[in-house]
Please model this.
Amino acid sequence: MTTQLNTAQDAWGDDLPDWVMTLARECANTSQNKVARQLGYSATVVSLVLRRKYPGDLKAVETAVRGAYEDLSITCPALGEVSPQVCQEWRTKARKFSTENSQRVRMFRACNGCQIHKGGKDDDV
Model:
C-alpha cells in the first residue's frame, strides 16, 4: 500500500513543493480525513492536491497548510495577527452584512476594505 508521501512524490516528481510534502506527511501521520477537517477542506480536495489533479486554487490550499502546520499568520486590519482559517471564517461571514453584533459589523467593514478580500476570490488568502 502506498502512503500519501509516495503518492505526492509520484505525482509531483521533482516539482514537489515543500507545503505538499508537509500535507502528505501530516496525512501519513494521522489520516487524510483529519487533516482535511483541520484545513477546512474535504478529503477529496486533499487527495486531488496530493495527486496533482486539483483544479481549484492551489494557493488557497497552500495558505491553509502553512497556517495549520507552519504557523503562518495574516495581518488583519481589525484583529491583528490571525491564522488563515480565522481570516477565511470572517471573510465568509463578511459576504453578507449583519447587525447581529458589533463585532460582525466591524468585521464586515474591515474585511470588505481589506486587500486580501478584494484581491481575489473568497477562498483565496
Summary: Confidence is low (pLDDT under 50) at residues 121-125.
